[in-house]
Amino acid sequence: MFKADLHVHTCYSKDSISSPEKVVQRCLDIGINCLAVTDHNTISGALEVKRIAPFTVIVGEEVLTSCGEIIGLFLTEEVPRHLSPEETVTRIKAQRGLVCIPHPFDRFRPHSRLRRNALEKIMPDVDLIEVFNSRTFMLQDSARALQLAQSRGLPGTVGSDAHVEREIGRSFVELPEFNDAEQFRLALGQGKVFTRRTSPLIHFYNIRNRLIRLLKKS
């Protein structure tokens, strides 16, 4: 069985300073043996973690479209930011990747969650819905995400949305082992989720991380 955290960031995201080495070590320390690395607008961090990790790593990207964020999983090429949601989905599908909608109803992320009208347009091509994100503060918002997944008959993912390595593993899913995207999608249907919210104070780390990066550049 895999113990998978399906939404993790490394220092290749501008609001994280977690090195690939520290991410891998954290996973080894807590028993996470499957990881989806979903840095903002790049797959470089995911490829580096995949290169050094002795466990399964899904190459992902949290892409900022013109209408909010979409996650692509099982990517082989980077998807450019600021494209339309439709074009972003097309580019993910062209790689035989999976389209996942992160934190779709998080009221405290009005600029990053995908706009509702945009979501409705691409729903026929959506493969997965993130039904629990540890950084989503209101349980009602997570409940709405779960209801959306169930109403559309789509598998749900869960993840810590870690930007600091100690967040990794706060939420995860235990699921059967898989070898490719389609097997992963089917395995999620047999998964057992374990969820914990992260303190809202963790968002101050994002601000701190950005400041640290700016100071290093100066």
| Structural class computed from helices and strand pairing | alpha/beta
State mean pLDDT (0 to 100 scale). Answer: 93
Strand order in space, largest sheet? 7-6-5-4-3-2-1-8-9
Strand content: 15-25%
- Tally of structural domains: 1
- Percent of residues in helical segments? 25-40%
CATH topology group: TIM Barrel
Count the helices. How many? 7
What is the count of β-strands?
Answer: 9
- Uncertain segments of ≥5 residues (pLDDT<50)? none
CATH superfamily: Metal-dependent hydrolases
CATH class descriptor: Alpha Beta
Topology (elements, then pairings):
Elements: E1 2-8, H1 20-30, E2 34-37, H2 44-52, E3 56-65, E4 68-73, H3 85-94, E5 98-101, H4 116-122, E6 128-133, H5 139-152, E7 156-159, E8 172-175, H6 181-188, E9 192-194, H7 203-217
Parallel strand pairs: 1-2, 2-3, 5-6, 6-7
Antiparallel strand pairs: 1-8, 3-4, 4-5, 8-9
What would you note in describing this structure?
With 218 residues, this protein is an alpha/beta fold. The chain has one domain: TIM Barrel, CATH 3.20.20. Helix content is 34%, strand content 22%. It has a 9-stranded mixed sheet with strand order 7-6-5-4-3-2-1-8-9, sandwiched between helices. A hairpin with a 2-residue loop joins strand 3 and strand 4. Helix 1 crosses helix 2. The radius of gyration is 16 Å and the shape is globular. It starts with a strand and ends with a helix. 48% of the residues are buried.
